[in-house]
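Morning F.,

Quick status update on the modeling queue. The single chain you submitted on Monday has been processed. Sequence for confirmation:
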Amino acid sequence: MNDVWTVPGYTPVRELGAGGSGRVVLCVHDATGTPVAVKYLGERLREDPAFVGEFRAEARLLGGLRSPHVVAFYEYCEYAEAPGGAAIVMELVDGISLRALLKQSGGTDPEAALVLLKGSLLGLAAAHRQGVVHRDYKPENVLVAADGSSKLVDFGIAAGRGSTPGVAGTPAYMAPEQWQGRPASPAADVYAATATFFECVTGHKPFRGTNFAELAVQHVEGPVPESQAPEPVRPLIRRGLAKTPEERPENAEAFVAELEQVALAGYGAGWEERGQRKLAALAALLPLLFPSAGATAGGTTALATTVLPPAPAGWSPGRRGALAAAAMLVIGALLLFSYEAVAGESGGAATLSAFATSSAGPPGGGGPVPVPGASVSATPTPSASMSPSPSPSTSVFPSASASPSATPSSSQSPTPAPTPTPTKPTPTAKPSPTPTVTVSGVEATLLTGPSTGQVTVSLDVKGGPATVVLEWFLGNDLADLRVADGTDSVPVRAGTGPVTRAHTFTRGAGCHLSVRVTTTPSAGKPVIVSKAIPRCQEPPR
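Structure tokens below.
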């Protein structure tokens, strides 16, 4: 096996980035002309069956997530000959990393930061509903598209909720319980997301220790620096950076509900539209970093993950012992593992914004692991029908519902091999351009029962698949969006009829049910429909 192996059915265009964990290549799907990002496991790692297993687990995890705020998974492939190669084929997100944006601007307006936080939190919420904890939320793993929308990437060290995979993460964003090796919980992701939000609105990280020991003490025992942030968002920072998981919102979905309350109270109606426009304007300052710009690859994959040995049982530094305990943790880490970037922001990380990167920590997962070489029957993606290939590779658990949304990139036709007799080269078929997708005419009606609601959304989709996002809320008044009660994402093909979805809501959380309807691509302002819940109606006296 050598480095020239490529996933059959895809033509490489250019490398987007490379590092110790592997490389990511912009490719075009031969059958449809759809641009994709293909992540290849690095040569050093693919020789270790454990790392290959973890790479498979990351692919399985991505395949189970259905959210417009998480990079879409298309398929997973392995080379059938030892020592073997492995690759994940994913959506190509034509965007830039939040790290690149912060490096350019230093920070963002609070409204822009709130929009960015909300989008990536909705991605986290999809993972949390599947019992998955990301464990490495940071600016490198949040992508900002040209329209100001955001997506979450890199589930390389994700773990199952309640599991104890060891101490791992990026130090500047690790929750206190991560430093202590406690079980993985969604509240740790809330902490990391808040630390990233703090960096957006202040221009610096909440804790700026210069080494492991200082960072450990500051995260575990240091006061929350909320006073450094704008006053309207301080309640979010105070809650999200609380020292114990119990003091924080229990998961990303709950945090979104608090975020919307704070944003509305501090910045008024229209904060979300204004914030998205501001994000789009900041992203527009970096046009050459977008994958569609065709810039030369540079930088490395996100290798800022720190893997530390398991913490001693009951380890919890006190005021006197924190420094010594943290130093002990550091020494063990330096002896057993390599730490490649404390803050994870140096170098050309911005050029790697089109894909999810993989770290070497143990992901969550579960379920049977496919065996290389085994034949697995699965439905190909609607937009990319995979044809059989004579190449000795095996396609494992391809996604059945992912829909590419990026604009196709052109690829060069291979040069014909020379022959003894001059012949006219056979022209290579060029991929047909992907049609522009538009969504219009969005309308919604809502029916409610004592414990369920049903929304019907009519819309006009042209040019290709779109996504309808339904966000459910409970409150005491019509259009009260303070208490989030779940999110559904529904793919819609062009020319199809209305979308109908039922929802069982939390009992006792309010007397009015509301649904906010948005689409990808956007059809304009969100549509909000509300209705009273019959169980709250008092009988006439």
